[in-house]
Amino acid sequence: MKNELNQDTVVFFENQFVPLREARVGILTHALHYGTGVFEGIRGYWDGDRQELFLVRPLDHYLRWKANCKILRIDLPPAASELCDLTAELIKRNEFRTDLYIRPLAYKCSQRIGVNPDEKDAFAIVALPFGDYLDSSRGLHAGVVSW
Q1: Which domain does 47 fall in, by range?
Q2: Is residue 67 part of a domain?
Q3: Which of 41, 87, 140, 147 is the most exposed place for a label (fewest CB within 10 A)?
Q4: What is the pLDDT along the chain (147 residues), one digit of tens a residue?
Q5: Model-level pTM greater than 0.90?
Q6: 3-class DSSP state for residue 90?
Q7: What's the CATH number where 83 sits?
């Protein structure tokens, strides 16, 4: 399974749709040093017969993402329904016709060292072609552990 994106793939970054090659964060980004970021994962499944892509509960994912961002005091201005619309537009711009994985990421984006984050927040949304997560052709082994 190859999950690398073409650098021309469109992503949502810094409040605009841009090619992946233009979506960069600095090495001093607060989230890289202190873990002040929140991500979500949304699956999308392509139905070839209907020529339609179905996302799995995107509104629920975005509501949870926004709630988790509040814990880190990351302010996401768009409403969850607007985030769903941004995701739909992102998929359209890339003309995906395959199973997808959508990765929204919110983070403290200050360019400095220091444990106390300021109020500067950012978010991005990336969609990428994504087949089966695990090779299940030979079955999977699982265990249950009690802590």
Answers
A1: 36-129
A2: yes
A3: 147
A4: 455 678 999 999 999 999 999 999 999 999 999 999 999 999 999 999 999 999 999 999 999 999 999 999 999 889 999 999 999 999 999 999 999 999 999 999 999 898 887 779 999 999 999 977 777 788 888 899 998
A5: no
A6: helix
A7: 3.30.470.10
